[in-house]
Write a structure and sequence with these properties.
heterotrimer, A alpha/beta, B alpha+beta, C mainly alpha, A: alpha/beta, Rossmann fold, Dimethylsulfoxide Reductase, domain 2, Barwin-like endoglucanases, 7-stranded mixed sheet, 25 helices, 25 strands, 16% strand, C: Formate dehydrogenase/DMSO reductase fold, 16 helices, 70% helix, globular, binds iron/sulfur cluster
């Protein structure tokens, strides 16, 4: 757990800029498009020319919730760094976090409200005023509410936490629709579902990589894309050399080497879809070795009887020696930790696989102890952390409803399902049945393009909000988002749009949602929380607390107990042990290769593709920029006569994409891997029209237990098209040729 | 004339640079580095590196003062990947410095290999001579799509076509720290007061930066690590970057 | 010595001066063409490059030096033999030099100028190129004398100055001859050019003495110039460039290509200025033998270079060697070996050595090979340095190719202008070689 004392927080508060200025700047945004002929002869009081100030807020490039500090000079954001007192990021950021400036100053931002001026999806829009835009939506929603038809209104958002989530929920509730759902491709839905099975609670536990000595990851790219990469990376650094005389070991099990696999001491390419089975094999070895001494030892023996290393070895293609060795190390390590994620948690057996990995943690006694799995159900602000599922089932329901004509108004905020769903979900086609699509978005994208009305939103660097990191960090923490610069354009934050719509609709909505602005709302809620904790809360004191929190960007109680560290009910875990082998779409004879789509450290699920710094950032594993590719084992490529740059046609039972081939030394010969993130059709100039989106050819199969998309369970066949494409990469030769580069001596042959 | 000769001799005296206060040094622990490239974007942001565009990237005209090199070892399935962040090594015996006909790149008293954009005439000799290939040339004058130029760091100049550039160890941050230290009763810069952008961002804390003249600094301690080595040490360029090689559990 | 019978003194004057005083439309067409090609192929692309940046050329991160620099070496190389050969032959008193040395020296001058142009084309900010001159700036900052590029600036300017003086000095009596044969403005001009030369014994004596002095002075200079150019490369530690053999290698290559260049120029003078009387088989034969000798030395040094790379056994040198011999640019390498090491052996046959047409072809092939050699040095070393991750390729862009073609037109233009302003054969020295048989002039 991170060590941040109150004193650190307070020290930082002293050093920080004037956080409340955000509010002043925000207020100024009402007067838009003022151009000064003689700029800043008398500078505004909140900044001195030539002097940089730092404002703390929250990164929104993924759902990790890292605290960031933004350097401001002359009212412009210049640099994003980690907020040193924030327990998630501890002063660090990932590449995507740094690139937030490219989002703020993106040339493709939507600058005014727009309405569709042609056929839907044609991409031609005309400007309208905020008044007209809000009135159009407000009156439509108001009418549906009066007609008692509000359930025909749906709200679909990306991953939203904190008060904005509360505001959305309240708005939809007051409107009379219970159809508010989130969709985020990266959301670890299967993990939540499995935790429900294993532990009886669907929280995301805290994986204490920092204090672990042996991390066994089944497919979770925890250093690159999984849940909280910056936090995990900090922990990883500590695991390696944070403690004198100790170096933690990591093992990665996945069919294609990820960033995390590259850093691991051992990389084990088990057969795709059998990762859970491998976990059970290891569990079997642990129990039969006599390492497990729990009272339910016999029950475990029985449950695991069918998973002897010899049998598991045949199916996983991991030798039984290796399985025994892993079991030995896992059992003997001072603090071992097993993690499941990525493709291992994205088969038709996702939940079963994760449950198997959970069982491993249980058997090795890793639950609730340092270096293991820590449950911190007690969150800072209980309501704010409410985990709203952001998975697949919700969008499938929505699609069905749209197809059935049950949706009259669809509000979409910060989500791009047209891009991020398999084509055979037919989401885009279903949109045609919706009479009014309203997009709340900062950028044009594939979904926004389908909208009738676009309400342009502030980026996160121009918005008020708050966040409670999930999973927590072991003690109660909440972060504040504040505008670090005045909105650049005629845009509003999503929260303010919702509040404005509430006023438009009238009735009880503006009475119950009484806040004039999102800022007011956040303040109000924080006051409530403050009062709850500090029983004698006087207004004066809250003001000081608020200022301090704004300046620090985060409020936390490092000393406080992390809450009920619930011990899982093992019986249900044992009961749910089953042969977790994934079923693949497509027969092996017709479709000989398994498609392995993976999130990239640069674009994540594609949301980073419109940021030029990320487009120009070499992919960490291949060094490719500006495009996508399909990775093949050199042996597979040689067998099929495929060379780097040969354009392949990759067909699944449900679709086809075309991408250039790239041989990759660390991938199973029966797997073809494709990065997710490119292949955008309407996501601005930098995302361009480059590469292909593998999600589109993923068959719409679901995990049988959770209903989540089994995005790693599709087989494909590949064909050379005869075309060639230049793959732009920075790598020359990727062998050291015996030179003294990675080590002091020539130990590379 | 004689003073000129004396001056020249004093510069050439071994240990001349030891007389100065600072020797900025970096250590990079390859056993922590995950190749995440946060440092690459951090440097791009801090130092106003241009966005060169797809076409020019395809022609190998990219500009990255720090890049991650990747080396494979072995064959499937026993294949391993080694990442190594490569940036100017701030060599004490820098081949690039003797190359430059106009002193656009020279050694300063803090042990830095500096690059004076205004003085550079673009012969590119320094880039040929640099064994680490960390010098990047402005083949064009790059512009930013409006309003991306608003993110440019006012502390760092924007380079024009025809000029060589490379990692400066974020000299603007060193200057600010020195100015502050000077204003603060003319004291020395304290350990940890200068943090280059790449070091600042690194999520695994693989990089450590500081003054190796100060035996108490973190970087001095890291340099003593038995895993420490310098890349291509046999070339005798005396780099200021010490890498710590990967360890095994 | 003279293939077509010995001319009279008057004939010499008449023949040579005719090339200057009688200008037909052919000349103007030719001059127009070369100037046009120079403008379109050299200056227009250069202008474009000045506007967009050196990125207009194909150079990139893998090879920041490209054809501009390899052409620079080529032209510097071509400049050898002119002045050098002339000086050496003057010192050794070889009579066959006299008919050809003026054009050869002019070649030196013009190829040096062309080479200097390539420096301008090469650098990123040519508008600041004067910073590399040994003049302190307003802050008392001098250029860096440790830089081999600075050595270059000094060596080339010295060489250019000395060669200019050398050729000028040798031309003074001939300028007087032009003065005496012309009228009007031209006469006034050549009066100035010839410094009032009257042909007194004292004048002849002084000229002879000064000329010999410069001849002795120019020889080491020429050797040093290409040695220093080679240090631009050899003083780096780049595998494939960091060779001690580079200085003699470059000097030998320079004389080699320069001598071949002289054969080409001689052919043209004979052909177009009808100097058959003065430039004969003896010249061709001597140059052919010289070329054979040079090609053998050149081949020897090449083998030596390969050997020491291989013998060193470091990964760096071996990779550079491999890349050169069988890598991407290998066809160019073997083309060079064919043209520079094998084709010249044909000249062992006297029949070939005595054939103007065959010798023309061989001399051009040698220079194509030498042009390639310089490209290979630049393009096969940089993309294979120390860090394999940074290995790459470099292809010249059409701008570089066009500028390369244009440079030949610049050279030709300068030469065409030269033949109208300076007697392209030394009148007085040719006369010295005439046997005083007839006294009709
Ligand atoms: N607002 C405003 N603008 C002005 C003027 C004004 O009065 N007000 N005046 C105008 C006039 S007259 C002028 S001359 C210009 C001056 O404009 P600038 O030339 O920009 O002058 P400064 O801001 O004084 O210094 C520029 C930078 O040089 C850095 N610096 C200091 N010492 C050194 C050094 O030794 N080496 C290097 N490389 N950098 C160093 C400083 O930290 C600073 O960041 O501004 C003009 N513009
Ligand atoms: S992990 Fe990176 S993208 Fe995600 S919140 Fe943290 S800094 Fe932002
Ligand atoms: S790494 Fe290269 S650029 Fe940097 S000091 Fe050394 S030689 Fe010069
Ligand atoms: S490119 Fe610039 S810095 Fe490099 S050697 Fe030439 S003038 Fe000097
Ligand atoms: S030290 Fe500064 S300039 Fe150098 S690579 Fe790091 S961020 Fe870039
Ligand atoms: S930020 Fe740190 S861990 Fe990431 S690539 Fe750079 S040095 Fe390595």
């Amino acid at each position: 757990m991170s060590k941040i004392s109150r004193r650190d927080l307070l020290q930082y508060i002293g050093a920080g800029g004037v956080g409340a200025v955000g509010g002043v700047l925000y207020g100024e945004s009402v007067q838009r498009n003022v151009e000064l002929l003689i700029p800043q002869v008398v500078p505004p009081d909140d900044y001195s020319p030539g002097v940089a100030s730092w404002y703390n807020t929250v990164c929104n490039q993924c759902s990790a919730g890292c605290g960031i500090s933004v350097r401001i000079r002359e009212g412009k954001a210049k640099k994003i760094e980690g907020n040193p007192v924030h327990p998630v990021s501890q002063g660090r950021t990932c590449a995507r976090g740094q690139a937030g400036l490219n989002a703020l100053y993106n040339p493709d931002r939507i600058r005014t409200p727009l309405q569709n001026a042609g056929q839907r999806g044609s991409g031609s829009f005309e400007e309208i005023s905020w008044g007209d835009a809000l009135a159009t939506v407000g009156s439509r929603l108001g009418r549906l509410k009066i007609e008692n038809n509000a359930s025909r209104v749906r709200l679909l958002t990306g991953r939203v936490r904190g008060r904005l989530d509360e505001l959305f929920a309240q708005f939809m509730g007051l409107l009379g629709s219970d159809h508010y759902q989130q969709y985020d491709f990266t959301y670890p839905s299967a993990l939540m579902a499995a935790n429900k099975t294993s532990y009886g609670t669907d929280v995301l536990p805290y994986y204490d990589i920092k204090n672990a000595t042996f991390v066994l990851s089944f497919g979770a790219d925890y250093l690159g894309t999984w849940i909280s990469p910056v936090h995990h990376s900090l922990a990883y650094g500590h695991l390696r050399h944070g403690q004198e005389g100790r170096r933690g070991k990591t093992v990665q099990i996945e069919p294609r080497m990820s960033l995390t696999g590259a850093s691991a001491d051992e990389w084990i390419p088990a057969r795709p879809g059998t990762e859970g089975l491998l976990a059970l094999g290891i569990a079997h070895a642990l129990v039969s070795d006599g390492r497990y001494q729990g009272s339910d030892r016999d029950e475990w023996s029985t449950a695991l009887a069918a998973f002897s290393p010899a049998r598991v070895s045949a199916e996983t293609e991991v030798s039984d020696d290796k399985i025994s060795q892993l079991a030995r190390e896992f059992g003997a390590s001072a603090a071992s930790l097993a993690i499941a994620g990525g493709a291992a948690a994205a088969g038709t057996n996702a939940v079963a696989s994760v449950v198997a990995v959970n069982a491993l943690n249980h058997i090795a006694g890793n639950l609730g102890k340092p270096g293991g799995v820590i449950f911190n159900s007690e969150q800072a602000f209980s309501s704010a952390a409410a985990s709203r599922p952001a998975g697949h089932q919700g969008v499938l329901d929505l699609t069905e409803a749209m197809e059935a004509g049950d949706v009259e108004v669809l509000l979409v905020h910060d989500a791009n399902p047209v891009y991020a769903l398999p084509e055979n979900v037919r989401f885009q086609q279903a949109l045609q049945n919706v009479p009014l699509i309203v997009a709340l978005s900062s950028f044009p994208d594939e979904t926004t393009e389908m909208a009738d009305l676009i309400l342009p939103t502030n980026t996160y660097l121009e918005s008020w909000g708050d966040d409670v990191p999930d999973p927590g960090v072991g003690f109660p923490v909440a972060s504040i988002s504040q505008p670090v610069v005045a909105p650049l354009y005629d845009t509003l934050s999503a929260g303010d749009i919702v509040l404005s719509l509430a006023r438009q609709i009238g009735g009880e909505l503006p009475i119950r949602m009484r806040w004039g602005t999102m800022e007011e709302f956040i303040r109000d809620r924080w006051r409530e929380e403050y009062n709850k904790r500090e029983s004698a809360g006087e207004a004066q004191e809250f003001e000081a607390f608020w200022q301090a929190s704004l300046e620090a960007g985060v409020w936390g109680q490092p000393g406080a107990d992390s809450g009920g560290n619930s011990v899982p009910s093992t019986s249900s875990t044992i009961a749910s042990i089953a042969n977790p082998v994934s079923m693949f779409a497509g027969g092996e004879s017709d479709y000989p290769l398994v498609l392995h789509p993976y999130l990239t450290a640069t674009f994540l699920d594609g949301r980073g593709a419109n940021l030029p710094w990320l487009q120009e950032l070499p992919d960490p594993m291949t060094s490719v920029v500006y495009g996508s590719w399909a990775e093949l084992n050199p042996a597979t490529a040689a067998e099929m006569g495929i060379k780097d740059g040969d354009v392949l046609e990759i067909s699944s039972p449900t679709g086809t994409v075309r991408v250039p081939a790239l041989t990759f030394p660390a991938i199973r010969p029966d797997v073809v891997a494709m990065p997710i993130g490119q292949g955008h059709k309407g996501y601005g100039r930098y995302a361009g029209d480059r590469g292909a989106n593998p999600i589109h050819v993923v068959a719409n199969q679901i995990d049988t237990q959770s209903g989540e998309l089994a995005w790693a369970a599709t087989r494909v066949k590949i064909k050379r098209t005869g075309e060639k494409l230049q793959i732009i990469k920075t790598d020359g030769v990727t062998r050291t040729l015996g030179r003294q580069i990675l080590a002091p001596k020539n130990d590379h042959g | 004339m004689s003073t000129f000769v004396e001056k020249l001799r004093s510069y050439r005296k071994p240990g001349y640079y030891d007389e100065f206060d600072y020797h900025w040094t970096m250590t990079i622990d390859l056993d922590r580095c995950t190749g995440c490239e946060a440092c690459v974007v951090a440097c791009q942001a801090e130092n106003n590196l241009p966005i060169v565009g797809e076409e020019r990237f395809a022609q190998s005209r990219e500009i990255k003062w720090i890049r991650i090199e990747r080396y494979w070892e072995g064959e499937y399935p026993n294949v391993k990947m080694g990442f190594i962040p490569m940036l100017c090594q701030q060599c004490d015996d820098a081949p690039c410095e003797t190359a430059c006909p106009v002193y656009a790149t020279y050694h300063n008293q803090d042990g830095l290999n500096t690059q004076i954009y205004n003085r550079c005439i673009g012969t590119r000799t320094c880039a040929v001579y640099c064994p680490y290939e960390v010098r990047y040339f402005n083949w064009f004058t790059y512009t930013w799509d409006e309003p991306l130029e608003q993110q440019l760091n006012p502390d760092v100049s924007v380079r024009e076509k025809g000029v060589m550039e490379k990692c400066t160890f974020c000299i603007q941050r060193i200057r600010i720290a020195k100015d502050n230290a000077k204003d603060d009763d003319e004291r020395r810069v304290r350990d940890g007061e200068v943090v280059p952008a790449c070091v600042q961002s690194c999520p695994t804390e693989a990089m450590v930066f500081g003054n190796s003249k100060d035996p108490g600094s973190k970087v001095s301690k890291m340099m003593k690590n038995p895993r420490g080595y310098k890349v291509l040490e046999e070339l005798n360029t005396s780099p200021s970057i010490v890498y710590l090689t990967k360890a095994h559990s | 010595m003279f293939d077509h019978g010995q001319p009279s003194y008057a004939e010499v004057n008449k023949d040579v001066l005719a090339t200057m005083l009688e200008t037909g439309p052919k000349y103007w067409i030719l001059l127009g063409t070369t100037m046009g090609v120079a403008g379109i192929c050299f200056f227009m692309p250069w202008f474009y490059q000045l506007i967009v940046g050196v990125g207009a050329a194909g150079m990139n991160r893998n090879a920041v030096w490209g054809t501009y620099l390899s052409n620079f070496i080529f032209w510097i190389g071509l400049s050898h033999s002119g002045t050098l050969l002339s000086a050496v032959l003057h010192i050794t008193n070889s009579p066959w030099r006299k008919a050809i040395y003026r054009s050869a020296e002019a070649m030196t001058l013009f190829s040096l100028m062309t080479a200097a142009l390539f420096v301008m084309v090469h650098v990123g900010r040519v508008w600041f190129v004067h910073w590399s001159f040994p003049i302190p700036n307003q802050m008392g900052l001098w250029p860096n004398f440790r830089s081999p590029l600075m050595f270059d600036v000094m060596a080339i300017t010295t060489y250019l100055t000395a060669s200019s003086i050398f050729i000028y000095m040798g031309s003074v009596p001939d300028f007087a001859a032009v003065r005496d044969a012309s009228t009007g403005l031209r006469r006034r001009l050549y009066t100035i050019f010839s410094f009032g030369w009257r042909g007194t014994a004292r004048e002849w004596h002084t000229l002879g003495w000064a000329y010999t002095f410069f001849a002795v002075f120019v020889v080491p200079l020429a050797v040093s110039v290409h040695s220093i150019v080679s240090w631009d490369f050899a003083l780096s530690i780049v595998p494939g460039l960091h060779h001690t053999i580079f200085a003699p290698y470059f000097v030998c290559g320079a004389i080699y290509s320069g001598t071949a260049g002289i054969v080409t120029v001689m052919y043209c003078l004979r052909k177009f200025l009808h100097f058959e009387k003065y430039i004969g088989q003896v010249h061709l034969d001597s140059l052919g033998k010289l070329l054979i000798a040079l090609s053998l030395i050149w081949s020897y040094i090449n083998i030596l270079e390969l050997f020491s790379s291989w013998y060193g056994g470091t990964s760096f040198e071996l990779e550079a060697l491999k890349f050169r011999l069988i890598g991407f640019y290998a066809p160019l390498y073997w083309e060079m070996i064919l043209f520079c090491a094998f084709v010249p052996l044909l000249m062992l046959s006297k029949k070939i050595r005595w054939s103007w047409n065959k010798m023309l072809v061989i001399s051009i092939l040698i220079n194509i090979g030498m042009l390639t050699e310089r490209f290979i040095i630049v393009a096969t070393s940089q993309p294979r340095k120390f860090l394999p991750d940074a290995f790459g390729f470099y292809f010249p862009s059409w701008i570089e190719i066009s500028i390369t073609i244009g440079s030949f037109a610049i050279f030709a233009t300068l030469f065409l202008i030269f033949i109208k302003w300076v007697p392209s054969i030394s009148i007085y020295e040719v006369k010295e070689t005439l046997k005083p048989l007839r006294r009709d002039a």
